[in-house]
Specification:
Elements lengths: L2 H41 L25 H11 L3 E3 L5 E3 L5
Antiparallel strand pairs: 1-2
Length: 98
């Protein structure tokens, strides 16, 4: 096999690995979103008065360097305005149709 073919093959394998890793992490964050929304539904947290504490909201220093998909999912849900945060720092589901 020529050197050019080996380089092209190596770059192709590298791109495939990067794509699969990105898809895996996106899948984990999506599962985290579903888990969080289901937990809020189960507890009936649909407004600021019925908001609940979520254990996923607390980031641990012990997990530094390890991907914490649950807290990433929670951050995404808050930024996307799907989950609200009460003044007490508790979480509630803004959209009941989810």
């Amino acid at each position: 096999m020529s050197e050019t073919v080996e380089i092209i093959f190596g770059v192709g394998v590298l791109l495939a690995v990067i794509t699969l890793i990105r898809k895996y992490h996106a899948w984990r964050v999506k599962r985290g979103c579903i888990h969080i929304v289901e937990a809020l539904k189960a507890k009936g947290a649909f407004d600021a008065k019925s908001a609940i504490d979520l254990p996923d909201a607390q980031k641990s220093l012990l997990k530094m360097g390890v991907r914490d998909h649950q807290s990433m999912a929670l951050d995404h849900l808050v930024v996307d305005n799907i989950i609200g945060v009460s003044e007490a720092g508790k979480y509630y589901l803004k959209d009941r149709t989810l």
